[in-house]
Design brief:
It is built from nine helices and no strands. α7 packs across α8. It is elongated and about 60 Å long. The protein is an all-alpha fold. The chain folds into two domains: 50 residues, Homeodomain-like (Arc Repressor Mutant, subunit A, Orthogonal Bundle); 120 residues, Tetracycline Repressor, domain 2.
Length: 211
Amino acid sequence: MSGGDAPANGDRPIAAPRHGRARSEKAHSAILAAACELLLQRGLAAVSMDAVAARAGVSKATIYRWWPSKETLALDALCDEWDVAAPVSDTGSLQGDLIGLLLPVARLASSRPYGRVIATLVAEARTDAAFANLYDSRFADPRREQARAAFLRAIERGEIPASTKTEVALDLLYGAIYHRLLHGHAAVSEKFVSDLVEVAMNGIAPRSAGR
């Protein structure tokens, strides 16, 4: 075959593999990991995009391609850590479902100083409406929705009354956890989660006088 002939079998020349997506995903993960470490070590106020870029081994322009501010980066870094806590499962009881949802939160909260990161993000959300919407949709609302689904399953089973004030119950549960997490006056331990769910359940479905 002469140099001008087409490749054998009519095949086109094999193109070099494209690594752009892999590099992009690797950089994205490196930035989130670097941001999380710096946030936990120093707090948001002391973290700059320059510091994150240096630790992640990327340019600052690369970070700004995905995140317009360090607050949005901090939120994604927090969600990246907390979203992998545990799969949601239907245990067949409201108490079991709630413990299954809240125990991973307790384990994360007790493992590293997330409280000050969340406190800073909450403060930012109270002064920036656009960020507040982002915080709610990315962090607060998904967790409430998981617990809300557990209450709805319990109502369908007849385990709790249909008149249960679900939104208040959600505030009771998550409010107690974030109170400890933000104020730091006591640990968010596994025993605390167990006690919290027990107290909430006794309030939602009080024992009859004969039991």
